[in-house]
Write a structure and sequence with these properties.
4-stranded antiparallel β-sheet; alpha+beta; 3-stranded antiparallel β-sheet; globular; 448 residues
């Protein structure tokens, strides 16, 4: 089945350089410069950023860390048994070395086509997804003769892995106004004379049927809302159905009634706790000692000079406290509203020569919401996301041993030099530097 999905890339092109933002060109709130707004809290101490109190945050972390069982609804197809399994370094919510597998192929019209994955010796076909789950709950004692393990057919010639993303600081990312990202895209394309033009992607808000927002979560910017993102992961990575995503990928071996995830005495289901936990995570803290060294300070200047900061934007700000986002389903609290933070990313998607060839499948990522996509989510523009991936935010990059979307770059210079496409000029600028200057940029990045 051809992926139709409908991330509406408003290919509105992109980012003014980070220096312009630092000079106050960017506004999260009109007439308010980033310097006038308080800094978002950063750290790795498992404390709340203020969205909830610490005991509530710790209770939400218990839910996030909890290992799911078959009795809870795990599977039938799945990759992990807890959120923490993929998001844990250096603490719950961080990144990891865990990767997922995605596949597909091109049709006769050269457009991307989702795979058909046979399971149970061809008794059932998994459609509407590019994700191939690595694990299954049967054969088992209850189903000794039912084998549902997914395997990649030879027909699926586009194959890629994607590494797990860090969620630290994502509450602030969710609170970036859509307009900020749209303007960032337009200004970027203008300032680089069309050489660097990231894609703005409008996606459905699953909890607000008919509403769309600017995507910013996932390697393809497939979600704008942390609740949508959490529900997607709960189903597709762990096989747990929710009120947002009530349909199992397969009914084979399934014995737990849908939705698996039901509200508790507090009225919140586990997926609600996950979203609240992520919203309350602090931003990654910087190594201030290393950042203060002469080499790192020089590297910071060179980072801008060679053009890295065009996409790896230093500073962004959140919308004002009380702003309603996600189709009106979430109101930005004081802990997230009107804050300055430093992600070193633009939360746009780009073609930097490493794209995985995968177009985001709407059925997988939006469930029943894919049946009637918001008008902003154009299938014609959606195909443009195929060879683009989200700019990796560099905050916390020093805590990652595997880099880029697929995790196959293992040193910072390797990752930089692997950039091409829209980032070709920046990579060329790095390549022309002296060894000492290249080392300075690496030291700067190792302070992030």
């Amino acid at each position: 089945m051809t992926s139709k999905a409908f991330l509406m890339p408003c290919a509105l092109a992109m980012l003014a350089c980070a220096l312009c933002w630092a000079q106050g060109k960017q506004r999260a709130n009109k007439n308010v410069s980033p310097q006038a707004l308080p800094e978002a809290p950063a750290g790795f101490d498992n404390k709340s950023n203020g969205v909830v109190d610490d005991p509530t945050h710790q209770a939400d972390q218990v839910k996030f860390d909890e290992v799911e069982s078959v009795a809870d609804g795990l599977g039938p197809l799945y990759n992990a048994q807890s959120c923490r399994e993929c998001h844990q370094n250096p603490t719950s919510g961080g990144g990891s070395q865990v990767t997922e597998l995605r596949v597909g192929h091109l049709g006769p019209d050269h457009r991307f086509v989702n795979p058909d994955i046979p399971i149970a010796h061809g008794a059932a076909i998994i459609t509407g997804r590019t994700l191939v789950n690595d694990r299954a709950i049967c054969p088992s004692g209850a189903f000794p003769d039912t084998e549902i393990q997914e395997r990649v057919p030879e027909s699926e010639t586009i194959r890629t892995t994607r590494i797990s993303l860090s969620l630290l600081g994502d509450g602030f990312v969710e609170a970036i106004p859509d307009r900020t990202l749209v303007d960032l895209a337009r200004n970027q394309c203008t300032s680089t004379r069309g050489k660097v033009c990231g894609l703005v992607v409008f996606v459905p808000i699953v909890e607000a049927p008919g509403q769309a927002g600017v995507g910013r979560f996932g390697w393809k910017n497939q979600h704008a809302s942390l609740l949508s993102f959490s529900g997607d992961a709960y189903l597709n990575e762990m096989g747990i159905t929710t009120q947002l995503f009530p349909d199992e990928v397969t009914k084979l071996c399934n014995t737990v009634a849908e939705p698996n995830d039901k509200p508790g005495p507090d009225g919140l289901a586990d997926v609600d706790h996950f979203a609240r936990f992520v919203r309350a995570l602090m931003a990654p803290a910087r190594d201030l000692t290393l950042a203060a060294t002469p080499a790192a300070r020089r590297g910071s200047d060179l980072f801008d000079k060679v053009g890295c900061a065009v996409c790896h934007v230093r500073t962004l700000t959140t919308a004002a406290t009380g702003t309603r986002i996600n189709g009106g389903t979430f109101t930005i609290p004081a802990a997230l509203g009107g804050k300055t933070f430093h992600p070193y990313g633009d939360f746009l998607i780009h073609d930097v020569g490493t794209g995985d060839g995968i177009v985001v499948p709407t059925v997988e990522h939006y469930g029943r919401a894919a049946r009637q996509m918001p008008r902003e989510c154009s299938p014609e523009n959606f195909e443009k996301t195929r060879n683009r991936v989200r700019t990796a935010p560099l905050w916390g990059v020093r805590l990652r041993a595997r880099l880029m979307h697929d995790g196959i770059s293992v040193t910072i210079p390797d990752a930089i030099l692997r950039h091409g496409g829209e980032a070709d000029q920046a990579a060329h600028g790095f390549r022309r530097l002296s060894s000492k200057d290249q080392e300075a940029i690496v030291e700067f990045l190792q302070s992030l």
